[in-house]
Design brief:
With about 220 residues, the protein is of the alpha/beta class. About 45% of the residues lie in helices and about 10% in strands. Strands 1-6-4-5 form a 4-stranded mixed sheet.
Length: about 220
Amino acid sequence: MYMNTRKAPLDDVRVRQAINYCIDREEIVDTALEGVGGTPAKSVFPSILPWSANDELEGYTFNQAEALSLLEAAGITDTDGDGWLDYNGETFELTIKTYTKRPELQPTAEVMVSQLEDIGIKASVIILETGALKADMNDGNFDLALYAWGTAPTGDPDYFLSYHFESTGKYAGWTGYSNPDVDNWIELGRRTMNEDDRYEYYANVQEQILEDSPEIFVF
């Protein structure tokens, strides 16, 4: 799930981390996927891939208390006692946009809406055709956008990481994410021939993008 880091308050890493903590991935796998497949995601790559750093990463557990604590630190609290969190004097609302082509995405987004509302974030789902969703993402016209990817189509970690998390990457513009350390590690990984050194660079990238949370990895 992409987060629009150019849009307040999603430009605050604490808010992005809070959303990560309020997502119950087990519930999504058990209900939205109806038990037919999938496992909760810890990071960008499945653990079966040789460059996955999942065993070394803490990831985001389902933790509503931590989510609320981070939101409070970011100035998002229920100021009027109506049960909804407020930001800048107005109800904090988020919309999840997704598309029709992948049938598992709509029920996933609907479960996420319920999970967001459980902690007081008013949320809704908008279902679009793929082209319309991409147009909105290219224009920055979204809060959250749920999208399905194969993360290893080329057999090399550079493909997905550079496209999504390098500042100049093809899809980095969707989130607006930019971190010079991540850029440097991706470039070093691209130019390095030693496999152990490459793994270290890509492990650093995986750890940093989890912390920065421009995207949420769901299942």
